[in-house]
Amino acid sequence: MREPPVTGGRSPDLRDYETSNCPVAGAMDILGEKWTLLVLRDLFAGVRRFDEMQARLGAPRALLSKRLRRLEDAGIVQRVAYREPGARARHEYRLTDKGKDLNTILVALKEWGDRWVNAPGRAPTDLVDRETGAPVRLALVRGGDGREVTARDLRMVPGPGAIPKRQA
Amino acid sequence: MREPPVTGGRSPDLRDYETSNCPVAGAMDILGEKWTLLVLRDLFAGVRRFDEMQARLGAPRALLSKRLRRLEDAGIVQRVAYREPGARARHEYRLTDKGKDLNTILVALKEWGDRWVNAPGRAPTDLVDRETGAPVRLALVRGGDGREVTARDLRMVPGPGAIPKRQA
DNA sequence: CAGTATCCGGTGCGATACTG
DNA sequence: CAGTATCGCACCGGATACTG
User: Fold this and answer.
1) Residue B51 · residue B57 · CB < 8 Å
2) Beta strands in chain A (DSSP E)
3) What is the number of other CB atoms lying within 10 angstroms of the CB of residue B104?
4) DSSP 8-state secondary structure symbol assigned to residue B61
5) Which one-letter DSSP state was computed for residue A57?
6) What pLDDT score does A94 carry?
7) For residue B115, what are the CA distances in angstroms to A45, A114, B73, B110?
């Protein structure tokens, strides 16, 4: 039996389910190491070579090497060999589809950082529509009609993979 | 002078700007320590008391204490004292507005984790509209008309706070 | 219940230096 | 240019115990 809810408990209550298969935990398991998300930020910004990345990040080379390998093992990044005419072989790092799909995470972090960390109105980058140049932002939209909803309209409910805790 | 772009360089190139004021780095500076985002996940799920959080996370108590203090110092979480009638005083942790605004980051992590980490179609939680019950997801929308755009339509350009690198 | 304090072995990080 | 090797130190994780 749980304590009486201090604040109006939702029902069904998410706290009655396991956290072992939490997707946030799964994501952070790969992305949560130091430097990793900054590596990805740079990859999204078009940085593809080891040294340039290292110079921008200021991270220890050994660490960067380790992170890139981890991302490669996770299928987020692909090491691609190439050779410019007359130059010696090199290789670069590229985002896979799985890696490109991290875009919204980066955008969410950027937007929050812009709102709460940096000086207001001083964002170092803007997201715009490639065609029109109109600003682009992240929003919660409702399936079906694609209408935008606010965070307050949002509700989390147990999904198909929810695992109830024993002794419910 | 930079190396000739291996892949078609955008222009203006984001790599010509400083990373010192990067909002992603700013956000990760606060959120990037181990356990922190999982603590926030639990707070969003309605967990407010220390011991319950500790039990769900499995994190060392000392660590959890440290993380909560850090979040409190950052203005993301607020320690609130309360007393149930006839019980002794306690206190709980609540998200501030700054904390609630982390919602999209958590949702982005969740969605990516659901797509790439867990078994397909087995998400432990679903996001739905509180009124209609329709599924809700994160999307990139264009300012003005609020139309959804794809990641491919997206472009990052230097913003008002961009700091050019010397020797451009 | 809600922490803080202490210890201790392991891991991760950062700085530097070296190699192909 | 693209890493690997090494080394001290800080921090983490886990256990245990103590305080209010």
Assistant:
1) no
2) 77-82, 90-95, 125-129, 136-142, 148-149, 154-158
3) 21
4) H
5) H
6) 97
7) 23, 27, 34, 9
HEC assignment per residue over A66-97? HHHHHHHHCCCEEEEEECCCCCCCEEEEEECH
Q: Are A42 and B13 in contact (CB under 8 A)?
A: no
User: Mean pLDDT lowest for which of A60-64, A86-90, A159-163, B40-44?
Assistant: A86-90
Q: Dihedral sign, CA of B36, B37, B43, B45?
A: negative
What average pLDDT is seen over chain A? 90
Phi-psi domain of A99 (left: phi exceeds 0; alpha: psi -120 through 50; beta: other): alpha
* DSSP assignment letter at B109: H
The secondary structure of residue B1, as a DSSP letter, is -
User: Contact, A87 vs A73, CB < 8 A?
Assistant: no
A35 in contact with nucleic chain C (CB within 7 A): yes
HSE at residue B73, side-chain half, CA atoms within 13 A, is 8
Q: Are A114 and B160 in contact (CB under 8 A)?
A: no
pLDDT tens, A37-62? 999 999 999 999 999 999 999 999 99
Task: Please identify residues in chain A, positions 89-128, with a C-beta within 7 angstroms of any atom of strand C.
Answer: none
Between CA A67 and C1' D2 the distance (Å) reads 14
Interface contact B10-A46, CB threshold 8 A: yes
Write down all domains in chain B, each with its CATH number in brackets.
18-153 (1.10.10.10)
Rounded Cα gap, residues A152 and A135, in angstroms? 24
